[in-house]
Design goal:
Radius of gyration: 33 Å
Helix content: 40-55%
Shape: elongated
Distance between the termini: 71 Å
Number of helices: 10
Length: about 450
Amino acid sequence: MNGLSHRHPCRFAYLEFSSNNKKPLIKHLYMEGLIQMLQSPYENSGNVLGRMLIVEDLTADVIELLGSSLEIDPLFFASHLHTSRSGKTAKRPDTRLLPSATKHLKFLSTIYHRPISFATDLVPFKLLCDANVWRKVGAWPAPGSVSVGFTQRAFSTLVNVNNCGIWFGLALVDPPVRNTFFMDGREQQRPKTPVLFHSEQFQGGYDAFPFTRPSSNDGTHSPPRYSLFDDLIYYWTEELPSVFDPRAPAILSLSYYPLKIIVAEWMNFANVMHYTVENLEFSIEGLSTAPLELQRLESDLAHLQGFRRRTVDSSNKMNSLVYAVKSLTPEPPSLETWESLLGDIEHVIYRIDMYSRRLDALVPVLSSYVQVAESRRSMVETKSITRLTYLALVFVPLTFVSSIFSMSEDILPGKKNFWIYFAVAIPLMVVVLFTVARFLT
């Protein structure tokens, strides 16, 4: 937890489910209210069935409070925190556990990407979000003097049940993307210099999914799509999922709305890939192999290779999500709902893999352009060196003759035998140039 920042306060909201109300009661809390609520999280007041706490932008103090009050496995917080580039990959829990071990975990944790766009093409390739938990940002130039990219997000949830049957759920979410970012220095433990870039969600954000039943509003409202925190409150107050049992909810049922939103975010990430691949394919048609274009070609190749690595990593994250959902999927009658969600995930994986193959096809093409441009630059440099060589051959004989004749005072400039210098130097220079020309041809 040493890498956590305290730049921003956490946001807290908890949903209270009771047998008297079809929809949960929403309460927003400050730190003092959270401390008071956690003193008796399983309090059986009235007809309360259970509670779910949503926490946005974790801090070390909140982790210690939640962990001690609810007796939470530290691996739960570790899985949510160790996703930024500042932490070493070897320490990440998801790289150290076998699938057989993750299947028996009492929580769900997943990573996803939120596509964003910038109003300038001067955005660095690697950044970190302004948040208490550093999340990496990737960006690359796009047509129209803009940049597109993504920011890494994480969601984690668990549910505990006490002896009286009262359950308590916890959901950890990341804050919205702010316009303040930090340079991503791998050698530094934490970024220091903030930079400002206006950003917004790519194409307005993910497509909101409809409710299974007619909504209580008139259809004019939609989720904010600014932060997962607000979106979850919106969906939970509009309709309870059909797979959710307020008397004894499973981890997967508590994750229904977050997973739907995360899959929609991945779908928007696939749209970013489609946008990027098409722009690269069209830009290659107009590329030039002139030496002056070499820097641009190398930059495009570097961005392409970095984007390929991210697409492979994204596909792995999606496959991990499929495994997690399948391992937690209950038996019918709710099986059809989860099969539908799995079908959406597999469709997104198919799209990501398809665009990844198209990116793979572009790499040798762009590499060949770079090689041709480098060879032409080498030819230009060779011609420049040849000109310098001829220029040197003009002065070498003259310098040689002058150094010899300088030993005699009669041949110095202004003396009567100074003409001998030219009579010897000029024919010698002609002989040298003629000999070199014959050798080169």
